[in-house]
Amino acid sequence: MSRSFRLVLPLLPLVLAMAISMPALFAQSWMSRTEIGFTAGGMNYIGDLNNQSVFGKVNVAAGGLLRYNFDERWSMRGDIDFGHVEGGNPDYIERRNLSFYSHIVEASLRVEFNFFPFSMRDDHFVWTPFIFGGIGFFAYNPKAQYTDPNTGETQWYELQPLTTEGQGTPLNPTNTPYNLMQLNMPFGIGVKYHPSKSLTLCAEYGFRKTWTDYIDDVSTLYVDNTALKEYAGDVAAALADRSSQVEPGYVNVAGVQRGDDSLDDWYAYFNVSLTLKFDFLFGWMLKRKCDNK
Description:
The protein is of the alpha+beta class. The chain folds into two domains: 209 residues, Porin (Beta Barrel); 73 residues, no CATH class. 19% of the residues lie in helices and 40% in strands. It has five helices and ten strands, in the order ααβββββββββααβα. An eight-stranded antiparallel beta barrel has the order 1-2-3-4-5-8-9-10. It has a two-stranded antiparallel ribbon with strand order 6-7. It is elongated, with a radius of gyration of 27 Å.
């Protein structure tokens, strides 16, 4: 046996113990930095059917989140959120009389920056303002109500298949049907607070910049209503131009502005969240695993 090997031999038990404990130590570190929780708040739409107002009608929204804290300043967070938005009825252009309703399902990944060194340790701030930004995608499906004049029956109709602005038809060949799943960019501000070493409370206000002008199914121009009826049916023609419900007999001619395609639609989500650290929720599993070794 070589002299060098004899010198190393007493260290082998220590090296073996470290190798065995490293996965547990890594898991403990990961769990102490990770939080899971839920959000609840309100969602509203900004677009053609509320005159681009930031303060549109607010509807209830909720979701779940997972946050990993790199240090006291930086965090990464993943969210899945559910809500719905609506606009119009009555519209700021009364004669236009358009309205819509759409569910929103959103998944996003974002980075958070804390202005103060935010930590559950006693010598750090227990609250901090923060900003966030990231990338995500969302699914939506605008709908509108239509009452059949013959039967009096009222139903909700999906607007995208009705091609209300002639998308994908000879009436508007340059405008293809819009996709019901789109990218977005969430960004905003908030405040975090640690009431305990395992719990984080957060309040935030965030906008969602999108790259579509069709959350509300309104963007460009009216097409010929009689021709649209031939291509897409009575319901499509009725929901494409609802002016006659306000002013009987009035029909917009082809080429009249229906929406403003110079600005994309946005939506906002303000919420409060509650998160718990993984080691608080699942630390007993790690301890039990270590005790059994």
